[in-house]
Each structure stands twice: as structure tokens, then as C-alpha cells.
Amino acid sequence: MLDCIVIGGGQAGLATSYYLRKKGLDFQILDAEPSPGAAWRHAWPSLTLFSNSASSNLPGWPMPHYDGYPPRDHVVDYLTRYEQRYDLPIRRNERVTQVRYDGSAFHLNGLTARNVVIATGIWSAPFVPFVPRTFTGRQIHSARYRRPADFAGQRVAVVGGGNSGAQIVADLGLAGVSVQWFTRRPPS
Prior knowledge:
Order of helices and strands: EHEHEEEEEHE
Strand content: 15-25%
Largest sheet: 6 strands, mixed
Structural class: alpha/beta
Shape: globular
Number of strands: 8
Radius of gyration: 19 Å
Helix content: 10-25%
């Protein structure tokens, strides 16, 4: 019987695990990915953090310095080294499809625990809304965006005023792709 099972080995799962380890609890991390770095490994190559490295620390260990906003590969390297530094108990290629609670414990992937933390993020199941009527274009979520070349010669609408939307608009625009940005409020 474990104290806790953490589902997901990204930033939230690693931060939670740091504190579980610090409290001396018996836990296991289950991560669907074959290697460290979580969803960052799948993000588009030009993705960066929206904060500097000094403001992007996980508990216990600062992110190594980077001039400007750290790029995807810097983040992946940090997450990889963070796992190693704290020797976190991670089982890779572990996709959780069901969590069963019997009234006293949780059961999943052959493990039993008193507590479960779900730290999966949205990368593996992004929400793409239905567009009614006559829209015949292609819709993708930012989790599936890769590079401006995929949109060369097309007109692109980016919907959403979040950080991903802002970076994708910039990425496309700087590459000469015709892009229009739709947000509920003016971006800050």
C-alpha cells in the first residue's frame, strides 16, 4: 500500500513528488511518456517559457540560468536533471486509463494507494471546439502546432489570448504567414 500515486511526470507531478519525498512518504509516479520532459518534448521547437529562468523553478532546485526566456530544450533538460537529482520513482510508458476506489484505497495499473494526485495536464487530450455551419478549414489545438512552414500560403486564425496563442501568432507572423488573432479581450 503506497501513500500516494502521482499520475503525470510533468512540472506539477515533479513538484508534488518533491514534497512527497520531503515528507518521507512512499509514492510512485506513473508517466505515459518514454522519457523525461513531459509535454515539452512534443511542443513546437520555438516554444519558450513566458518567464525567465529565475522565476521558473521547481521546488528545491533553481532552473539553470538562461538569458531571456528559456526555450523548450532548456526546460526539457531541467526536468530531466530534476528527476535525476531527486531520484524520483517514475514508471515510464504507464498510461492510466482507469482509477478504481474500493472505499479504502485507490487501485490503478497494478498499484494500490491511499491517495492519488492527477497531474496530467491537457497535452494528451486537448479540447478542440466544434465550429458549426460552413467552416471547411483545418482546426488544431496548440498542442499539435509544430512550425510556420506547415501553414505557408494559407490564412490562419489563432483563437485565444493565452501564452500559447501569443507565441504561435508571433511565430507565424515572423515567418510571413497571413495570421489573424482573435481574443476575448485585448492581450496584455
